[in-house]
């Protein structure tokens, strides 16, 4: 049941205008410096956000009310309808709601996957790609009418929506008690390379991306906690974006894991799942598949590419030009990813940049052997149990594909599934978030 709706049609304004409208509100609190080569990275350590970063954990999770105490109200906010952040928010919201310990509401566009899990919690709000400040203000107002105690923003644009929310509402006479605000930082923009992430002296991303990172730094100072899903991202936020360390928390992603599927026989059906954008490296995968084919990849080996995006047409053209039309299938966006994984023999992640991709957790849990590039937190996730190759190295990726389709390619599947259940279950993720929310 959809309880409420805010729909703001996209206008002619650029996305950055919505960002600027929010950042303009920080003018009295923030000072932008040029540290680390990122505009806005060197921000003063006082005046932004609210609450202490070292408050002790509360004994019980209740909040004061006129009648004494009541259950806390927990709001999740998204501005996109698919992808890893959406899956993570759906899992958290549905589990917290089922626990009965908090009242939960889910704000955003309807998720393409898992909507049935949050339908009774759902309030539709929209902040589109070209939304101006009006859409942001309308969403903030809708959030605050529910009077949440904790607001958790799960994607980059939703972080802009909630930045400074607690401080600003607390300044208005008669306003409800300001909420505590959490933002999950799922990763850097698409054109940030692993090389620049590791080395600030490497060629930088575009000026626009550096401006986005400056906004990320400001948002992290205007919320109570920024959650990073990969340990590798914490030093970037603290050392490069100058976010106070006490405001950054690491919590692994967690999902309702798909069932383990036992596999026999060699790897012949390899699966990729993800958005078809440059960062995902599907062009490199196709080139590596062609190279591996020329070097003796089994004739019956095939690759399924699941997902959609702006590069799909170009990638389909690349597959044809490489002579792979009969060995590579483009399946488009699919809501039945667990079923597709159950029918595959292995999973490949050729990304140029990732942090802690949820689809990799799903693949591990289903028992798929994995070949991945060594980007972000992927090597840490795989725990030495899978093939890991350098990013943007087509030759190494081809070698990995040949090994994956070799005699021992499927051997690591059960161990990866056990690792996923120990570390990335939704229960572990909920417990860590519960501790975080209580500590605010």
Question: How do the strands and helices of this protein lay out in sequence?
Answer:
Layout: H1 15-24, E1 63-65, E2 68-70, E3 73-77, H2 84-99, E4 103-108, H3 115-118, E5 122-124, H4 133-145, E6 150-153, H5 156-162, H6 165-171, E7 180-185, H7 194-198, H8 207-221, E8 225-228, H9 233-240, E9 248-250, E10 269-273, H10 282-294, E11 302-306, H11 312-321, E12 328-332, H12 337-342, E13 346-349, H13 358-365, E14 370-373, H14 378-382, E15 387-389, H15 394-404, H16 413-423, H17 426-439
Helix pairs in contact: 2-17, 5-8, 10-15, 13-16
What does this structure look like?
This protein is 37% helix and 14% strand. With 440 residues, it is an alpha/beta fold. It folds into 2 domains: 15-254 and 425-439, Glycogen Phosphorylase B (Rossmann fold, 3-Layer(aba) Sandwich), CATH 3.40.50.2000; 269-423, Glycogen Phosphorylase B (Rossmann fold, 3-Layer(aba) Sandwich), CATH 3.40.50.2000. The strands form 3 sheets. The chain has a 7-stranded parallel β-sheet, sandwiched between helices. β10, α10 and β11 form a beta-alpha-beta unit. α5 (156-162) packs across α8, α10 (282-294) crosses α15 (394-404) and α13 (358-365) packs across α16.
